[in-house]
UniProtKB/TrEMBL annotation:
Protein name listed in UniProt: Beta-1-3, beta-1-6-glucan biosynthesis protein
Keyword Plastid: no
Amino acid composition bias (Pro residues), ranges on this chain: 182-197
Compositional bias (Low complexity): 38-62, 157-168
Signal peptide (UniProt feature, chain positions): 1-36
Superkingdom, taxonomy of origin: Bacteria
Region (Disordered): 38-66, 157-197
Protein keywords: Signal
Length: 197
């Protein structure tokens, strides 16, 4: 009886040893192939290792910028339009409307309304953004984002050229011509009273 137990035990140990040997062989072959490919690191790999640190710094700076923008909006805008959730959703809706993604904009607008944010502020901010349309570079996302934020903070803002042109009268086109007096609007002709009969 004891002999059978030892034989069974030896068979199990032999099977285990064979499995361990095959596994070790496969592992060594895999490591050999990996070490043959790794060689000396290329200069690009050194830059790739530095990129995660730069990405972390960029993410921290971007988060700080967003926090500052929310704080600026809360100080500049009274009421619910200055709340962080209204600022975030509202600017997102205006940006999506500018990019003609109206389906997504309307979905975000539903959330905006659910938070109790004023819909009129989105209208005013989008109206402001359309005034700055010529100054927005479609290839640079930062110009759109900064303009949306500026219009969210102050929806009544005007582009620089339009504001300067509105404050100064037009200059004469030729040097010898006299400035023409401005035409005064004539009152509308009123019907003459009918003579009494």
């Amino acid at each position: 009886m004891r002999r059978r137990v030892f034989e069974l035990r030896n068979a199990v140990l032999r099977q285990f040893a064979a499995t361990l040997a095959v596994s070790s062989l496969v592992l060594l072959v895999g490591l050999n192939g990996a070490s043959a490919q790794s060689g000396t690191p290329a200069p690009d790999q050194g830059k790739a290792a530095a990129q995660p640190a730069d990405a972390a710094k960029d993410a921290t700076a971007q988060n700080q910028r967003r926090t500052d923008e929310f704080a600026e909006a809360a100080q500049a805008i009274n009421g619910p339009a200055g709340n962080p959730e209204c600022v975030w959703l509202g600017r997102r809706v205006v940006r999506l409307m500018w990019r003609d993604d109206l389906d997504t904009a309307f979905r975000h607008l539903d959330l905006y309304d659910r938070f109790g944010c004023p819909g009129g502020h989105i209208q005013a901010a989008f109206r402001c953004l359309t005034r700055f349309g010529a100054q927005i570079d479609p290839k640079v996302a930062e110009t759109l984002d900064s303009r949306v934020h500026a219009c969210w903070i102050n929806p009544a803002s005007q582009p620089q050229q339009a504001a300067a042109a509105a404050s100064q009268p037009p200059a004469p086109t030729t040097g010898n011509s006299q400035p023409q007096p401005a035409a005064s609007p004539s009152p509308a002709a009123s019907p003459s009273p009918a003579p009494p009969k």
